[in-house]
Amino acid sequence: MVVGEVAVETDVVVIGGGPGGYAAAIRLGQLGKSVVLIEKDQLGGVCLNRGCIPSKALIHTAEQFHGFTHFRKMGIHLPEKEATVDLGTWQMWKESIVSQLNQGIAHLCKENGVTVVTGHAAFLSEDRIGVETGGDFETYKFKEAIIATGSRPFIPPFLEVDGEYILDSTSALALVQIPERLAIIGGGYIGVELGMAYAKMGSQVTIIELADRILPQVAGHLVREVERKAKKLRITIKTSTRVEKASIEEREVHLHLSSELQVGEILFSDKALVTIGRVPNTQGIGLDRAGITTDEKGYIAVDSKCRTQVPHIYAIGDVTPGPALAHRASKQGIVAAEVIGGLPSAIDSPHVPYVIFSDPQIAGVGYTREEAQLQGHEVKVGTFPFRANGRALATNETEGFAEVIVDAQTHVLLGLHVVGADASNLIGEGVLALEMAARVEDIALTMHPHPTLTEGWLEAAEAALGHAIYIVNKGKASTTD
User: Fold this and answer.
1) Residue pLDDT, tens place only, 361-397
2) What is the per-residue DSSP string for 255-298?
3) Which residue, 1, 26, 221, 215, is CA-closest to 129?
4) Which residues are CB-contacts of 471 (< 8 A; sequence separation ≥ 6)?
5) How far apart are CA 81 and CA 66, in angstroms?
6) For residue 113, what are the contacts with CB-CB under 8 A and spacing of at least 6?
7) Confidence band for 475, pLDDT divided at 50, 70 and 90
8) How buried is 141 (Cβ within 10 angstroms: 0-12 exposed, 13-18 middle, 19+ buried)?
9) Among positive and negative, which fits the CA dihedral 403, 406, 412, 417?
10) Pfam families annotated for this entry (predicted)?
11) Per the annotation, where are the binding residues for FAD?
12) Would residue 256 show up in a list of annotated catalytic residues for this protein?
C-alpha cells in the first residue's frame, strides 16, 4: 500500500506489543472492539524477549549452579570440578521459554480477534497512523489509539554498545560464554541482578555506581543483606565513582574511573555492561502530528484513565511518568481498554509493588518507615528475621526479614517490605493487604500455613503489636526504631 490510498478502518490501534500493549489489545477484543496491534519486533516486547523473562531464567540458572557449593552441609556430595555452566545450551533453553510465551500471546490475540501487524508505526494525524511493513506502507484510520512503545536502555554518548565488548542488558543475555572479568556500569536493579548471576557462574564482577551505595532507589536497610552477599560472592563494588571514558585495547575494555578518593584509575575487564537506566521510546512515532507533547525527559503525561492531552489517544507503560515495571504497564493497558470500552475504570491505587531479583531478593509495596514519617504518620514497625523461621532454616535460606510499617494510631498498614529468598512471591500478600486497607491485626489474626515463609508476615505483624511468638518482644513496639 502506498501513501494516499484508502486507510483500513479500525476502532482502536495499539502501538507496541509489550506487556501493556498486548494486555490492552486482548481486553479490547474481549469488549468487542476491532483492534490492530502494531509491533515492530516480537510480541511480548522487551520484557518477554530481552528483559524480564530471559534475565530471570539466567538468574535461576546461576542460583541452581551456585547451590552446589552448599550441598555438602546437607549431606550431598558431588564429584569435585564436575559442574560447569554451558551458556550455549542455556541460550537454547531460554529461547524455548520465550518462544512458548510468544506463541501463547499470539494465540490469545487471535482468539480475541486482535489483528497483529509487524512494522514500525508513526502517527500521520490525530486519527491516522502509518505502518512500514518491510517494503510496504499501510495506513490505518482509528477512533482511538493506545501508545505502548516502551523504553530502551540509556547509553551515555561516550559509550558505544557493540555487543562484543560493551554490552547492554540485551547483549548481556545473549552471551554464549561466561566472561572471566565483567565490569558493570550502574548499580541499580538490572546491574545488581545480572552482576550477582554472573558472579555465581564464575565471573569476576565489578559494579561501578555513581551514588554512595548500590540500589540507591531502595531504602538502605533493605539493601544491607544484598551488600553482604555481594561480598561473599567476591563482587567488587565501587560507589561514588564515575566512568569518564571507555576504550577497547588489546581485546579488553579499559574503563577510566574517577572518585573523590581516586582520580585516573583504570579498570580492566573482558566485557563491560551498561545498566544506567532507561529512556522512553517516544521519538520517531509522530507524536507532534497527533498533537501530543512530552516533558523534557520524553514522557507523556496521562490522567487516571491513561488519557493523554488528546482525549481519544491513550498512553501506558514506560512512556508515562512512573516506575518502568511490566505489571504497571499491564494494569494501565487494561484500564485504558476498559475506558475505551465504556467501563468505569481508572488507575485509582498508589500501591505499585516492586521486586528486585538480587540475592537475597527484595520486594516492597507502600511506604518505608522514612516515607511514612515524612507523610506525618506516627509509625510502628514490626520486623521478623527469617533466621527464626523453620522453613528458611530447612531450606538453608535464612538471609533477610519481613517488615510491616503501621500507623501507630489507627493500626492501618502503610507499607510491607521483605528481603529474602522468595520475596518476589511473598509480596503479593502485602499488595492485597494495602489494597484492602487492612490493619495490622488483620494479618496477625489470619492463620498462615506452617512451615512457610509467609509466617514472616504473621510474626512481623505480631511484633508490631508487641506479642510475637518466635522472637523476643522488646517491650512495646517502638514508634521510632
Assistant:
1) 999 999 999 999 999 999 999 999 999 999 999 999 9
2) EEEEESS-EEEEEEESEEEE-S-EEE--TTS-GGGGT----TTS
3) 1
4) 384, 385, 388, 459, 463
5) 13
6) 29, 34, 35
7) low
8) middle
9) negative
10) Pyr_redox_2, Pyr_redox_dim
11) 56, 149-151, 318
12) no
Taking 50 as the threshold, does the pLDDT of residue 477 lie above it? no
Q: What is the pLDDT of residues 131-177, one digit of tens each?
A: 998 888 999 999 999 999 999 999 999 899 999 999 999 999 999 99
Rounded to whole angstroms, the Cα distance separating 448 from 457 reads 9
Q: Is the separation of the CB atoms in 356 and 215 below 8 Å?
A: yes
> Which residue, chain included where needed, has cell 516492597?
364
Rounded distance, CA 415 to CA 409, Å?
15
Cell numbers placing 362: 527484595
- Going along the chain from its start, the domains and CATH numbers come out as 8-153+279-340 (3.50.50.60), 166-276 (3.50.50.60), 360-465 (3.30.390.30)
Instruction: Report which residue type is found at 74.
Output: M
pLDDT for 212-239, tens place per residue? 999 999 999 999 999 999 999 999 999 9
Binding residues: 56, 149-151, 186-193, 209, 277, 318
Per the CB < 8 A criterion, the answer to whether 312 and 145 are in contact is yes
Rg (CA), the chain: 24
Cell numbers that stand for 316 in this block: 501506558
The residue from 60, 70, 450, 467 that is catalytic is 450
